[in-house]
Amino acid sequence: xxxxxxxxxxxxxxxxxxxxxxxxxxxxxxxxxxxxxxxxxxxxxxxxxxxxxxxxxxxxxxxxxxxxxxxxxxxxxxxxxxxxxxxxxxxxxxxxxxxxxxxxxxxxxxxxxxxxxxxxxxxxxxxxxxxxxxxxxxxxxxxxxxxxxxxxxxxxxxxxxxxxxxxxxxxxxxxxxxxxxxxxxxxxxxxxxxxxxxxxxxxxxxxxxxxxxxxxxxxxxxxxxxxxxxxxxxxxxxxxxxxxxxxxxxxxxxxxxxxxxxxxxxxxxxxxxxxxxxxxxxxxxxxxxxxxxxxxxxxxxxxxxxxxxxxxxxxxxxxxxxxxxxxxxxxx
Length: 332
What we know:
Number of domains: 3
Order of helices and strands: EHHEEEEEEEEEHHHEHH
CATH class of the largest domain: Alpha Beta
Strand order of the largest sheet: 1-5-2
Helix content: 40-55%
Number of strands: 11
Structural class: alpha+beta
CATH architecture of the largest domain: 2-Layer Sandwich
CATH topology of the largest domain: Tetrahydropterin Synthase, Chain A
Strand content: 15-25%
């Protein structure tokens, strides 16, 4: 069975005429056509017979053609392009800003999508609360655009539910691909960006990774680079370039947030205790060495053990230390 192969479109430069050159020419043609019609009628009235049909028909035809040609004018702002399509055939893209004239039969946009009243794109048509987009003559903005991906609830690498959001800066690089290779490229960017964010979030653990493991919390820069690469791969077929991708929100899902907070607090307490004990042991060792080197006091093993115990209590205790004076000896 023979199937049609989908070809990838490629942008090429389109040719147009200067609008400032064509405008006076068409105005002259308009005046000439009007003059021909008026002249034929005036001549017929004065002569009292039928008008000059050649002059009348020729004037009407020229007037109609001129009016049609006048619809070929269009303007382009900086960082704006227009795709030229003539009877279903791609004829190039105009990127130069200014006043242009082109064949008036260059078609309008092939797809008129719909958007919600609040401006957000939708996937299905005919839903309540939708309004049709205005027709454009295949004009595409080349400016950088922001896409805010709202909070998504996904599972990280370890299966913990998390909330994540991001912002993507993108622009159209190839107008032919954006217009012909995907259906409604803005909606395509929105859907693929959300899918890419979900996929990238599932590749990393939220926190508490193994040694040298990149996590969503500690390796934000690496995660953003991975997200940008994923987006660029997905959006390349739409002629879209991703300039930046950044996480804007990252947190545990509400159902496990309290449990994870207690876990983080416990780990913080353990880490603090380890640091305190390590410092206390170092101070006790330094104190015993200084006492021995300077011959301040001679301590046997039992007295040394008692001093170590007292110093550890003083250094590791959370409450204020109250000294106790021993009037006897250690052995009495």
